[in-house]
Amino acid sequence: MQQTTFITSLLMWVVIMGVFYFFLIRPQKKKDKQLKEMRANLSVGDEVVTIAGMIARVAKVEEDSVILELGPNRTKVPFEKWAIGTVKEKKEVVE
């Protein structure tokens, strides 16, 4: 009798760990991987939004940082790549 309760409780913990993995850990790892790929594929001319909310255009890409052009005066400011939140979709010009 005691052995079946042990097996049942062990099985319950395995199921709980499986649920945590598939609903919490796995999606976060997938999101982190996509974010890392996005930051690795930055190129000159991309319009980006930083994690602080600034919208800028990439002027230069270095190994761990990027130089962004901000505002109408095109002020160049260095940022670490981890500070890039998203890359905005490029709009195609229809003539």
From TrEMBL:
- Cited NCBIfam families: yajC
What UniProt keywords are attached to this protein's entry? Cell membrane, Membrane, Protein transport, Translocation, Transmembrane, Transmembrane helix, Transport
The protein in question is named: Protein translocase subunit yajC
Determine if Cell membrane is one of this entry's keywords.
yes
Q: What Pfam family is a match, any one?
A: YajC
Spell out the subcellular localization from the entry.
Cell membrane
Q: How does it sit in the membrane?
A: Single-pass membrane protein
- Which lineage ranks, top first, belong to the organism behind this chain? Bacteria, Bacillati, Bacillota, Clostridia, Peptostreptococcales
Record's keyword annotation contains Protein transport: yes
- Where is it chiefly localized? membrane
In its UniProt record, which GO terms are filed under biological process? protein transport
